[in-house]
Amino acid sequence: MAKKSTINVEEVTSFIVNWLKEYAIKSNVNGFVVGISGGIDSAVTSSLCAKTGLTTLCVEMPIHQDSKQVNRGREHIEKLKKNYPNVKNEIADLTVLFETFKNEVPVCNETDRLNLTLANTRSRFRMTTLYYFAGIHGLLVAGTGNKVEDFGVGFYTKYGDGGVDLSPIADLMKSDVYALGRYLEIPESVQIAAPTDGLFGDSRTDEEQIGASYDELEWAMLYTEKQTDAENLKEREKEVLKIYKRLNSVNKHKMNPIPVCEIPNFLK
Predict the structure, then answer these.
(1) pTM of the predicted model, to two decimals?
(2) 3-class DSSP state for residue 22?
(3) What SS3 state is found at 165?
């Protein structure tokens, strides 16, 4: 079902690195800050930033984080620091902040809604933290979203991990990100780890949350773009297409520009 990556990893890497460097220089900043999760997207993004030669600050922001995610992230950071002298790292443990916040706001009796809201709150705390580091060091916040997440199913938090200055891998499918990960020699533990947003304090995967794998979502995104007749699809393909279209629809508010109430001239 999945479309395997056909990109030229060497040329794509060079293109993104040059794009990042030129953008940073034009913006008169010192480099980039990247939130490290222990996943492939943040690992690839931080590696691309590191290859610019500009300051690349990798920030861990645990909130009751699964130890496996933490260990993968630190393994990646240590490898980057060994290979690139321009890479630095910081740890900002946001667990106490998160618990304090929970104690200061009303409790919602709808468990599912509460859990999702708190998951998004974690992401927004992390966005604020990245911008703090960006501000004090003169850096840009580099986004880690890929094309399927950012423009397919909207699997990110508005003003959380969706709040960034630039998005170096947002035109790459997940399979492309994995291809770059292999080329960039991302640690094997990161490459084989099941994708997870790490926002619930447990080991639940993205696939468990979404109901489809990234391979399946990538297929659905490409299939939808072609506007092909769906009559000859297998049952699982129909199910995945339904999941994709539902998420693409309900998350349009993330992907489209913020609606502005434009006042008619005759009222001005």
Answers:
(1) 0.94
(2) helix
(3) coil
